[in-house]
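Incident log, entry 3
Record: Heat-shock protein Hsp20 (154 residues)
Problem: checksum mismatch between cached and fresh output.
Input:
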Amino acid sequence: MNRISLFNSPLLLGFDHFERAIDRVAKASTDGYPPYNIEQTGDDRLRITLAVAGFTMHDLVVQIEDNQLVIRGKQTDDRERLYLHRGIAARQFQRSFVLAEGIEVTGASLDNGLLHIDLVRPTVEPKVRRVEIRANGKSPAHQPIDIGADTEKA
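Fresh output:
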């Protein structure tokens, strides 16, 4: 079944990256595996912890694709083993997290079946800038208006 593109309108040119992001999130696993926690470890620091018991460092991939943090895990089957009962299946997963603008991944570590991904978010300082008002596209009118300043009427 083909999906109809949401961004076919000529008014939405250049928004195809949003459509790709939506597709990526839709393809991500929805079964809740692996479980995860997101915790704040400092004023500007976060940590995502995923329970990935049975996965080694070589089975896991952590990537940033556009503004998404994507974690993939794939266990390899040992073909030489003969199982009499197999209750622990080798499985694969993909978990995605949308990152806000400016958030950076500072590192990842695997410890006792837990994958820790450390993030830092920058402190945003408010920016104030002056916008000049021009009369009929010519030189600036009387005085520029300072948008960020409090003005008092006399």
